[in-house]
Amino acid sequence: MSAQAIRNYDDAGVLPPTERSDTGYRRYTPLHAQALRSFVALRGGHGHQQATEIMRATNRGDTESAYRLIDAAHVALLAERGTRTEVATALGALSTTAPVPVNGRPLTVGELARRLGVHPATLRTWETERILRPERDRATGYREYGPDCVRDAEIARQLRRGGYPLRQVARFLESLHEAGGADALSAFLDSWQARLTSRSRALLAGAAQLDAYLTLLDQATR
């Protein structure tokens, strides 16, 4: 880490207040070193901005706000874990059995929207992003969503609930089609689980370093 980076973190409030020498140089202590370790570790799980806010709150003595930020990250991660389980269940079923529309006929945009619980405009957006590729009725020009398209729409809905951007949903569906379903599905879910596990470890590492920093702060104020 460069000296300028440390100055920037100091100015941003990531580090506790520093004393200056008679010549104006900043004087750093083991407390500052632990604050920097805490920030770097927190950044791995919370991201740069959130880690900065946690350290700022801690350094101004507002540990309640720091704890709230940390708790919110864990709540969000828990919610994502639940979403992944839902997606795994839904995709596991959808990858082997394509949903059959009522009466075996293609669905209209309105019918599919009601089936998914989304607005028809959402389906048109998914079409623009190459997530859905409905056929057109030759006589009326209206969109028709057959069984394969309905299956893709079901998958897209679950992935969007998991917070995945449209482009990533489109890439996954394309891979799913190319791989025939099973391989792409397995790799996708494994990758998602690995990301969740990695973030959990990063949050734990950040919490450990922050706890060490809080201990030093307590000792410094005694």
Give the number of domains: 2
The CATH class name of the largest domain reads Mainly Alpha
Walk across the major sheet and give the strand order: 1-2
Q: In the CATH hierarchy, what is the architecture of the largest domain at level 2?
A: Orthogonal Bundle
Principal-axis shape equals elongated
State the share of residues found in helices, binned by percent.
over 70%
Strand-residue fraction?
under 5%
The rounded distance between the terminal residues' Cα atoms is 32 Å
Layout of helices and strands:
Layout: H1 3-12, E1 19-20, E2 26-27, H2 30-46, H3 48-59, H4 63-94, H5 109-116, H6 120-128, E3 135-136, E4 143-144, H7 147-161, H8 166-179, H9 182-221
Antiparallel strand pairs: 1-2, 3-4
Helix pairs in contact: 2-3, 2-9, 3-4, 4-7, 4-9, 5-6, 7-8, 8-9
Structural account:
With 222 residues, this protein is mainly alpha-helical. The protein folds into two domains: 3-76 and 202-221, Multidrug-efflux Transporter Regulator, Chain: A, Domain 2, CATH 1.10.1660; 96-180, Orthogonal Bundle (Multidrug-efflux Transporter Regulator, Chain: A, Domain 2). It contains nine helices and four strands. The protein has helices at 3-12, 30-46, 48-59, 63-94, 109-116, 120-128, 147-161, 166-179, 182-221, and strands at 19-20, 26-27, 135-136, 143-144. A two-stranded antiparallel ribbon has the order 1-2. Helix 5 (109-116) packs across helix 6 (120-128), helix 7 crosses helix 8 and helix 8 packs antiparallel against helix 9 (182-221).
Any descriptors?
222 residues; two-stranded antiparallel ribbon; elongated; Multidrug-efflux Transporter Regulator, Chain: A, Domain 2; mainly alpha; 4 strands
